[in-house]
Specification:
Layout (H helix, E strand, L loop, with lengths): L7 E11 L2 E7 L11 E4 L2 E8 L3 E7 H6 L10 E5 L19 E11 L2 E8 L13 E4 L2 E9 L5 E6 L1 H6 L10 E6 L1 H13 L1
Antiparallel strand pairs: 1-2, 1-6, 2-5, 3-4, 3-6, 4-5, 7-8, 7-12, 8-11, 9-10, 9-12, 10-11
Length: about 200
């Protein structure tokens, strides 16, 4: 489990993709805190470190993961958001993020508003919209964010406002219109929906 607070921006140093999936090699200072078999969120996708070195780690993503997330579009040199799993004694500074991506979003608009940058994001998962509420939580590339506005469109969309700290500490500050991002809705909303369905 993660909280959506990014610990480092890593760099993809190697990428070996075939029909079964891909092996990613990522350079990061977090490698000193990793052991083989540990989980780590890469752009919001929970992966397992298969090899760990002094300056980075390797992880494998199966074909389904590549198809359901924006990891399939990564290239060597890409910068990725990284987060280690939450420890029991840690503060829950963001919201509960599982690292199970619900779908891919496309950056539809970027607007500067004072010191903030507002991103418009359209979801390719048409069912995601029912989990979105204004002032609710969503993870974008693994970053815990607050939905600042809903965009009533098909596919559904939303806006998030990014402060300078978020722009500097994550790869969201490098996004351009048309870029793909990983989206994970708040798991609490999914559980509430399931309970209401059972009650009905």
């Amino acid at each position: 489990m993660f909280t959506g607070l990014i610990a480092d921006i890593g760099g993809v140093t190697a990428l070996d993709e075939n029909e079964d999936g891909a092996t990613l090699e990522i350079a990061t200072r977090l490698a000193r805190e990793l052991d083989e078999g540990d989980s780590i969120a890469v752009n919001g996708v929970c992966l397992t470190a298969t090899e760990v070195g002094d300056d980075g780690f390797a992880a494998q993503a199966m074909r389904e993961t590549l198809d359901r997330s924006a990891l399939g579009g990564l290239t060597v040199g890409a910068q990725v958001n990284l987060e280690l799993p939450l420890r029991a004694a840690d503060r829950l500074g963001g919201h509960v993020v599982q690292g199970h991506v619900d779908g891919i979003g496309t950056v539809s608009a970027i607007e500067e508003q004072g010191f903030a940058r507002v991103l418009g994001v359209a979801s390719e998962n048409h069912g995601l919209g029912r989990y979105l509420v204004e002032k609710g939580s969503i993870a974008v590339n693994g970053v815990s964010l607050t939905v600042s506005a809903l965009i009533e469109s098909h596919p559904p969309g939303f806006e998030v406002s990014l402060i300078p700290e978020t722009l500097q500490r994550t790869n969201l500050g490098r996004l351009e219109v048309g870029d793909k991002v990983n989206l994970e809705a708040d798991v609490l909303a999914k559980h509430v929906e399931r309970l209401l369905e059972a009650r009905a």
